[in-house]
Design brief:
CATH architecture of the largest domain: 3-Layer(aba) Sandwich
Shape: globular
CATH class of the largest domain: Alpha Beta
Strand order of the largest sheet: 5-6-7-3-8-9
Low-confidence stretches: none
Order of helices and strands: EEEHEEHHHEHEHEEHEHEEHEH
Helix content: 25-40%
Distance between the termini: 39 Å
Mean pLDDT: 92
Subcellular location: Cell membrane
GO biological process, one term: response to antibiotic
Number of strands: 13
CATH topology of the largest domain: Rossmann fold
Strand content: 25-35%
Family: Belongs to the ABC transporter superfamily.
Membrane topology: Peripheral membrane protein
Largest sheet: 6 strands, mixed
Main location: membrane
């Protein structure tokens, strides 16, 4: 497949800190690609280097076959960038904001108004940007990144600080953006978001790519146990431990959970004991892969 982005052994240091430490990956044309990692993993710095906003100390980056640094005017009409922190012109309405950005790219006001409709902000067109909700501001920010119809879109934590409803609503928008054939590169630390949206993900920590692949493939490669849970007290813990040798059993007063690599016999045994009340079966997720690779300590 055609590669829209090629990153080879890119490095960037700030004093003694290796923000990006030998990162390599490729993004295919039309792909929804995620870059995941805890705070300080190097996600934003990596994106800024690819976008041509920051110079790498060493290594190679190609976007559509060209180097983004120094700032490459040939690439600018082909890429759209939604930064982690968005800034708008003061005291302008949503329509005025997007028409101003459109004019910078030589795009007419009709296209700008179409973008407001595409991101669901037509009813807020005459509202000043500072009066918009968090989700509406994020939608406006994405509209500004798309108004010139770029082939490649960078989104740096677009759903940060949004409530669950606004996040899911924005996911639908991001899927539509990708469905038009655009290549989308998403940086996020929301694992459910990456699992729901991305074709492939690169998990980063301490400036390095630890794993890269499709979310489902990474989950399968973890070989984590399946957690079979029923309501607490459905059967005694001692009896639950006799169901399968080697399976871990825990009862926290809410749920009785059996962690096993062979859930079939466990489910059958629970059914025989009429102990399926409140049953839930949870396999490994991308979050399990993430925590396995990056650890569980809190990152400020």
């Amino acid at each position: 497949m055609v590669e829209t982005i090629q990153v080879d052994d890119v490095r960037k240091r700030y004093g003694d800190v290796a923000a990006v430490d030998g990162v390599s990956f490729a993004v295919r044309e039309g792909e929804f690609f995620g870059i995941l990692g805890p705070n300080g993993a190097g996600k934003t710095t990596t994106l800024e280097i690819i976008e041509g906003l920051r110079k790498a100390d060493s290594g190679s980056v190609r976007v559509f076959g060209e180097s983004p640094w120094p700032r490459n005017p040939a690439l600018l009409p082909r890429i759209g960038v939604q930064l982690q922190a968005s800034s708008f012109f003061e005291r302008l309405t949503a329509r005025e904001q997007i028409r101003t950005f459109a004019a910078l790219y030589g795009v007419g006001p009709a296209r700008a108004d179409e973008m407001l409709e595409e991101v669901g902000l037509t009813e807020k067109a005459n509202t000043r940007s500072e009066k918009l909700s968090g989700g509406q501001m994020q939608r406006l920010s994405i509209a500004l990144a798309l108004v010139h119809d770029p082939e490649l879109v960078f989104l740096d934590e677009p759903t940060a600080a949004l409530d669950p409803q606004a996040r899911r609503n924005l996911w639908d928008l991001l899927r539509r953006i990708n469905s038009t054939g655009r290549t989308v590169v998403l940086s996020t630390h929301y694992l459910d978001e990456a699992e729901a949206l991305c074709d492939r993900v690169a998990i980063m920590d301490h400036g390095r790519v630890l794993e890269l692949g499709a979310p489902a493939a990474l989950v399968r490669g973890l070989a984590a146990p399946t957690r079979v849970s029923v309501v607490s007290g459905a059967l005694p813990v001692e009896e639950a431990r006799t169901i399968q040798s080697g399976a871990a059993v825990d009862d926290d007063g809410v749920s009785l959970t059996i962690a096993t690599t062979e859930p079939g016999p466990v489910l059958a045994a629970l059914a025989e004991r009429d102990a399926l009340h409140g049953l839930s079966v949870r396999g490994a997720t991308l979050e399990d892969v993430f925590l396995h690779l990056t650890g569980r300590e809190y990152r400020a």
